[in-house]
Amino acid sequence: xxxxxxxxxxxxxxxxxxxxxxxxxxxxxxxxxxxxxxxxxxxxxxxxxxxxxxxxxxxxxxxxxxxxxxxxxxxxxxxxxxxxxxxxxxxxxxxxxxxxxxxxxxxxxxxxxxxxxxxxxxxxxxxxxxxxxxxxxxxxxxxxxxxxxxxxxxxxxxxxxxxxxxxxxxxxxxxxxxxxxxxxxxxxxxxxxxxxxxxxxxxxxxxxxxxxxxxxxxxxxxxxxxxxxxxxxxxxxxxxxxxxxxxxxxxxxxxxxxxxxxxxxxxxxxxxxxxxxxxxxxxxxxxxxxxxxxxxxxxxxxxxxxxxxxxxxxxxxxxxxxxxxxxxxxxxxxxxxxxxxxxxxxxxxxxxxxxxxxxxxxxxxxxxxxxxxxxxxxxxxxxxxxxxxxxxxxxxxxxxxxxxxxxxxxxxxxxxxxxxxxxxxxxxxxxxxxxxxxxxxxxxxxxxxxxxxxxxxxxxxxxxxxxxxxxxxxxxxxxxxxxxxxxxxxxxxxxxxxxxxxxxxxxxxxxxxxxxxxxxxxxxxxxxxxxxxxxxxxxxxxxxxxxxxxxxxxxxxxxxxxxxxxxxxxxxxxxxxxxxxxxxxxxxxxxxxxxxxxxxxxxxxxxxxxxxxxxxxxxxxxxxxxxxxxxxxxxxxxxxxxxxxxxxxxxxxxxxxxxxxxxxxxxxxxxxxxxxxxxxxxxxxxxxxxxxxxxxxxxxxxxxxxxxxxxxxxxxxxxxxxxxxxxxxxxxxxxxxxxxxxxxxxxxxxxxxxxxxxxxxxxxxxxxxxxxxxxxxxxxxxxxxxxxxxxxxxxx
Length: 796
Hints:
Blueprint: H1 3-10, E1 22-28, E2 36-41, E3 45-49, H2 56-73, H3 78-81, E4 94-96, E5 101-104, H4 117-120, H5 123-134, E6 152-160, E7 166-174, E8 187-191, H6 221-225, H7 241-249, E9 253-257, E10 260-264, H8 267-276, H9 285-294, E11 295-299, H10 310-314, E12 316-317, E13 320-321, H11 322-327, H12 330-338, H13 346-361, H14 378-386, E14 398-402, H15 410-425, E15 429-433, H16 437-440, E16 445-450, E17 459-464, H17 466-470, H18 475-479, E18 495-502, E19 510-516, E20 519-524, H19 530-537, E21 544-547, H20 560-563, H21 567-578, E22 601-606, E23 609-615, H22 638-642, H23 646-652, H24 661-672, H25 689-700, E24 707-711, H26 719-734, E25 738-742, H27 746-751, E26 754-759, E27 768-773, H28 775-781, H29 785-794
Parallel strand pairs: 3-15, 3-16, 5-14, 14-15, 20-25, 20-26, 21-24, 24-25
Antiparallel strand pairs: 1-2, 1-4, 6-7, 8-11, 9-10, 12-13, 16-17, 18-19, 22-23, 26-27
Helix pairs in contact: 5-13, 12-13, 23-24, 24-25, 28-29
């Protein structure tokens, strides 16, 4: 034993290194935080609670986690920092005691059509190496099994500059696994030409019916009309065979249009590059509608949806190809890998086995590696990100989770709680933003923010234990033990929606009648087939309004007013009263401040350091030209209107000179979903996940439809807000709508008129209807996992 160790062991004085056991935050002012100061214990599980919009994410993600990541990035060289995302220092006076932060958020996995569960984790890469070593016949390196890599062959002369220059002949080839027909997407598209143009018109008459293709568009329409390859005044239906071929399929070629060099390309390949190479969910609604009308996607006949070439599928291990392995449920694949005994690849098999077992352990064993990443729910995506941290040797780091129980059945929440506690017990600090009482109750320390949302939040209302929260008198404390009771009487259906032979994903030829005119909840454990049944069998369209979990995408320029369409009636009202053009009242159009281009701030790029944003001196952050701000409506200029909260604007546009019924109707819907506190001009990037979900719900409520399909509307909702949501669902039903909700929250189940429970398990253990009936019948029977948890919830 060294002298230092002996001195330590014999001393009762704690070591100075052990005194750093707190993360101290003083004077945090990110977003709506009001000089927040908290002390968070290290190596403990701390849960942050509060109503949606109270400042939880601003404190945990935008302050603590952001500063930790910024400080770690600063340890790299300036050269390396130039390739990394830059982050500004959060608005906070003191941040002390930080450790390395690992963020596991709810951001979707990415919208690339070629991204799958396997490519998003290390599983696919390890499988490719495994097949390149053990596959029979041997076909090449790991890239030969990659559906994202195309085969390449080339030959020719190359100049070698080594001493005296000399030209040598060289050949090059690389074997990739990509299917040549679908280019690794697994699906091929068939385009309906009637949706692209009106063949009775000529190009000069505006034949194109593609969104955004205006007749004077220089880079699209005019390049066809003025290319010299086509007669712009000839109706398309009168084109010769060669002209039609040139119009639809011509190879890219340079043409001159008014002295400018442009590329002419056939219409079909241009549409494929412009629209079909992007993920459908990432498109704007009107573009998505066009693609849905114009394009039909079918499974690639050449690779049968596997994305892989015939050569890649021909190499097998124990009669299993890599395509077969990726199509298996992960728990089955884990068993198959466990049966491979090959000493030459033992470390690889061990690593692959650990990754696959982590999927199973975290409750995602029902997924397959070829599942497109864009189809995962927010909760599934978050748990996939957790996989790389399970079994990690790292300790004394800070794990930051954003509502890890989203999308989880009460039965699965227990498993998630165990994982959080395991991470803590290894000596890590675990910070969790959460609303579910089942997870809050396991916390060592609780920080409750509020008391309200938006400008009414941003302060710490309570710090302490679960027992202290219950008696603390905060909104969370008062609602902590809330339990919805079963209805004394359920509504009678007015009809039924028949689903017959549903077999999407894991559904097993399901027949079910969904009652209409009532509130129906479809429930079951994660992966049991709920979304497959509802979204696969009730497509959005005539009479059906479907609100799924796809995230709202928006830039700094997007705000609630632009997203909901509220800005249009406001601009028209300003224009009418002042006798000017509506475009003047848009910060993205003619009215924009010329210095900051309507953003309100000036960004200064400092290379590898964080960009600095300063309020625009010309418009003082108001985003509009000074001349535009002279025009008033009801005594307010456009910048003052956009600074109003929804509640203030609802009153402003409800009566008097500013009375605008079209704007008032939209504001009514925003209030209905509990967003009365957000400001009209607040950038979408500053809204929390729960706020974005409700903003989406408010927007869709204006659509005309008899059936509303909602996918987990309680995601991101505080206990106090769930009651308001139930009231909204009731109002929709009372207005004659049929509401179908995919949901795990027991309060929504208890409030339902009819429950359809899928299961009994996930993946191939699910896909069946295990119960149909009223909530009272489900509780009385206790025949399913959902029934047991609902009975426990209501105290039955």
